[in-house]
Amino acid sequence: MKILVCVKQVLDGEAPVRPDVSGRWFAPEAAPVWRMNAFDAFAVEEALRIRERVPDTTIDAISVGPERAAAVLTRALEMGADKGIHLVTESEGYLGPRAVSSALAAWAGPRNYDLILTGAMSEDVMDAQVGPMLAVLLGRPWATAVMRMDLSGRAIDAYPPLPDGPDASGSAERRAQPPESAPAADGPYRTLYVERELEGGVREALVLGLPALIAVQSGINRPRYPALSHVLRARKQPLITAPSTTPGDAGTERERVTGVYEPPPSRMGLFLEGSPEDKARRLLALLEEKALL
């Protein structure tokens, strides 16, 4: 089985940022800390768990981004991915989901991956669009916010239909039967049973024919800490690099960022100065003045 995992490099959420010189994106202040998107780490771990159950599985990790994004692919190799593919972009600014998904489709289309895994969304933009757009461009079935996955050798028409009657959300009667853990004796894995997380603690069960694309939700697993042998291998293993290309009209701008700015303060603050005694007296006077005491 061939698996492709899409990963993204994001700025650490605690890093201070400011609008860049163009005013259309942000720039980190001081020494920025870049890391793997947390949702994508769950996707990498899920691919590794599939490889542990399915012999002869290969895992490719791919990322679209500037030169610095190579670090996130090295991280995927440290976790256990077999190859890292870097689709290099020239810009450090905003890259829309259409452009990213088109670049990924141009690479993945002719390589016949059995399963493509992405995170549910990115931590920085949180548009949750790259996975579904990539699936549509490749013409594959897809599911988002997936909390459980099981491979099966059964065909889709071998699953029993749901019983008639009103939907009792999440009840055993309305829940599709999960597939057997082993594939059918006459062929490879053909379908994928997934459970999607919905609102209110309800899950939706789906059966998808392979090849397919799955966007996993956080909490589907617990990403492992890289083993020392994988870390040493990742340091020596070169990445596969290629320019980020968008076929046809995919490069046409479908959206653009008109501006990025810091929100104005909602109210002015007052800093008390002086000794602790002076600050205490001033604070007491302010509270009495506003009738808060």
Can you describe what's shown?
The longest helix is centred in the N-terminal third of the chain and has 16 residues, at 38-53. 31% of the residues are buried. Helices cover 24% and strands 24% of the residues. Helix 2 (70-79) links the parallel strand 6 and strand 7. It is an alpha/beta fold and 293 residues long. Mean pLDDT is 86; it is low at 168-174. The protein has six helices and 13 strands. Strands 11-10-9-12-8-1-6-7-13 form a nine-stranded mixed β-sheet, with helices on both faces. The chain has a two-stranded antiparallel ribbon with strand order 2-5. A two-stranded antiparallel ribbon has the order 3-4. The chain has a domain at 2-140 and 211-264: Rossmann fold (3-Layer(aba) Sandwich).
Task: List the keywords.
single chain, 293 residues, alpha/beta, two-stranded antiparallel ribbon, 6 helices, 24% helix, globular
Helix content: 10-25%
Tally of extended strands?
Answer: 13
Beta percentage is: 15-25%
CATH topology of the domain at 2-140 and 211-264: Rossmann fold
CATH architecture of the domain at 2-140 and 211-264: 3-Layer(aba) Sandwich
Largest sheet: 9 strands, mixed
The CATH class label of the domain at 2-140 and 211-264 is Alpha Beta
Q: Name the strands of the widest sheet in spatial order.
A: 11-10-9-12-8-1-6-7-13
Order of helices and strands: EEEEEHEHEHEHEEEEHEH
Q: How many H/I helices?
A: 6
Q: Could you give the topology of this structure?
A:
Blueprint: E1 2-6, E2 9-11, E3 17-19, E4 26-28, E5 34-36, H1 38-53, E6 58-65, H2 70-79, E7 83-88, H3 97-108, E8 115-119, H4 130-138, E9 142-152, E10 191-197, E11 203-209, E12 212-216, H5 228-236, E13 240-243, H6 276-289
Parallel strand pairs: 1-6, 1-8, 6-7, 7-13, 8-12, 9-12
Antiparallel strand pairs: 2-5, 3-4, 9-10, 10-11
